[in-house]
Amino acid sequence: MFETLKNAFKVKEIRKKIFITLLILLVYRIGCYIPVPGISASTFSDYIADGSNNFLTLMSAVTGGALANGTLFALGIGPYINASIIVQLLCVGIPALERLSKQGEEGKKKIAQITRWLTLLLAVIQSIGIIVNFANQADAIRTSVFFDQAWLAYIFMVIVYSAGAMLTMWLGERITEHGVGNGISLIIFIGILSTAGNILIVDPIMNAVENSASFDAVQTIISTVIFCVIAVVLFALIVTVDLAERRIPVQYAKQVKGRKMYGGQATVIPIKISGSGVMPLIFAFAIISLPDLIMGLFWPNSDAYSNYQTWFSQGTGPLGWLYILVLCLLIFAFSFFYAQIQFNPEDVSKSIQQNGGFIPGIRPGRPTADYLKKISNRITLFGAIFLSLVAFIPSLAFSFAGEQYVNVFSTTGILIVVSVALEFDKQLQSQLMMKNYKGFLK
Known about the structure:
- It is a single chain.
- The protein is mainly α.
- Helix content is 72%, strand content 5%.
- It contains 18 helices and five strands.
- It has helices spanning 2-9, 12-31, 41-50, 54-62, 66-69, 78-93, 95-101, 104-135, 150-178, 183-210, 215-243, 279-298, 303-313, 320-342, 345-354, 366-390, 393-398, 411-441, and strands at 245-252, 255-257, 260-262, 266-272, 357-358.
- The strands form two sheets. It has a three-stranded antiparallel β-sheet. The chain has a two-stranded antiparallel sheet with strand order 2-3.
- α6 packs across α7 (95-101), α8 packs antiparallel against α9 (150-178) and α12 (279-298) crosses α14.
- The protein starts with a helix and ends with a helix.
């Protein structure tokens, strides 16, 4: 990857795109530190640090601490991600949207517009949810700034946070259009790395300055080194599995059309072990955190909410095994569900047959579809087991370095960092290859 970056900076066009990407990401990070007038940032940070609400803690980690600071980009790119997932699922279940998604570039533009409007709606809903949640905390909103009118402060916060979410979406789209890689993924990537950087770099440095040459400072440095070693090993293992794939050979028969001969070539169908990526984990954590979120919004002082947190949500109570079991079952269910969306054996089999291809040893048509389905289910099973292990192993491994390092990288955060880094490397390689081809043609 470092070799790819070095070669990319040698090309003027790609170097310009990289600088544009870095500039937009810098603008996003600056927005994560712009305070919202009338908001008590300390109350936000104290409530997030308390860890009593899993959903808000996860949102804060993805936004690089913007939510904990109550800043302009507190919602981050979350509403757009949720809107994209919802639209993607609706395209499978609603025939009109499915037809629209298959209408080429024009259909993609309409789907993108629908996603933007849904993003705005979800941003408003999420803003209201966060406000209701924090309204239960003392001094969460300084109503004196708004003439002692709490409702005016709530409306103001909804407008500001929704506008921040839409601006974040716009920045991500500009990166995709004028920069390198997927802008939305890079914004999430930089948010996760910012959260990790604060814990790994900023906090130890501040601790070392305050306790110079003390035992605590040395212990902090040793713990940080241990954490980095564990993180490198985990990232290496995850990258290995993420790049693993099953290649199914496909042979195309020779066809004579007019005076030209087509086909006669061999290719492969790559099926990745982690083809679903981080989506099953996101779905599973979202579903299992939903009761926690709803009860925290509407019944924060109820016995049901306290019992749910004590016995289930944190996975540390007497029924912690139930939390692990339910989470694993959800990961398995969503892994198979999302695999069916991404890879349809019937469509692939039909496409192979229409182009005069076949899998060696397998008859075209229904036998090919059944064979592909069997292979896909087996690989998805191993992928689901891998995701289930990733859901728990990182926190256990990081605990050896110290309790303060358990939440440096969330489960989804590790997979997102790996996936985005690999995708960014592929994007640079493809642009370098296109540049080389252009030079060859000239």
